[in-house]
Description:
single chain; 25% strand; 8-stranded antiparallel β-sheet; Naphthalene 1,2-dioxygenase Alpha Subunit, Chain A, domain 1; 383 residues; alpha+beta; 4-stranded antiparallel β-sheet; Rieske Iron-sulfur Protein
Amino acid sequence: MSGPENLISLESVQRPIHNANGLPNAHYIDPKIFKEESEAVLKANWAGLAVGADVPEIGDAKPVSFLNIPLLLIRDTDAKVRVFENTCRHRGMQLINEPRKIEGVIRCPYHSWCYSSKGKLISTPHVGGAGHNLHPSIVKDNLGLNEIRSYVWRDVVFINISGDALSFLKVHADLIARWSEFDTTLYHGGYDSKFQLNLKSNYKLVVENYCESYHLPSVHPKLNNYSRLEDHYNIVEYGKFSGQGTQVYSQFKGKDGRAAFPDFPNLSEKWNEGAEYITVYPNVLLGVQRDHAFAIIVEPQCYDETVEHIHFYYASETTDTTNRKINTKQWKKVFEEDIFVVQGMQSARHAPSFDGGCFSPIMDEATHCYHDWIARKISAFRN
């Protein structure tokens, strides 16, 4: 690496929490640093792109973007979710520009080259001249769509753009084991169980805020009335993941006072009143409770713009629509309460004397764990 961004030291971020600083301002407000971080963190690791529920049926296709890379999310004829570059191998035309069902093949709108839902090049009309659909220099087996390495866990579609990361199962073995009791079929609540939030903020501030419960009394006073700060605990696995848990979760109740949703099957007593909220580094926020779960894809659109894609899941596909809507509305209100904090931190990162701040060794360990992970990934990239 060369240039001024290489002069920004990350050594202080990697110190023990009691004398560490947070990431420097430039990691939130400098487009050059964001470009470096995109390579070192977002492309080099398993980042969240979308959810399987975005393409629920065979043949469903949806164009998506990740760091300005045009991608195509598709459920192939074997019901497997795949991710391809949304680019024809002929002249680079975008293949699909809006969500739709693929009937038969993916046809390029420019010269009508056609691909299967598994990315194989099927036909090349007139490639050898009018009426001649073959040419010896056009080898179909070499010109399938470029597939992005992907893995689906808890319905989240993770991608590794660089292709160099260890397998998802190896990288996240400890987290998968921690939540093994929730290894069951998840049913997305449908249209009334998703929403998105648009923030003028760096994506990392969304993650940092999610990691800790320290802000509950001041930012979520109503939530703190029944899920108090002292009822929470830190979840910290340096180099892996972090977040928070609560020991006082209670089932969501309907208007009749009874449980609105069935519990996930075969849970241990820990989850009767327990819930956990963990970040899958670098940009996926997951929550598990006995009766529903959620996944948040934190999409970095640029260094100071982020979209949160929030999705809710249940143990049954026949959950009551009214209760799902109420549950979504209540969670949306909680997540919206965080917006002013996240955007306020983004604005304040322009203060030239701010040194990244400090951490409470008791309350901020999950946040420091995330900063440490980011700093180590970038330091390794620079070296």
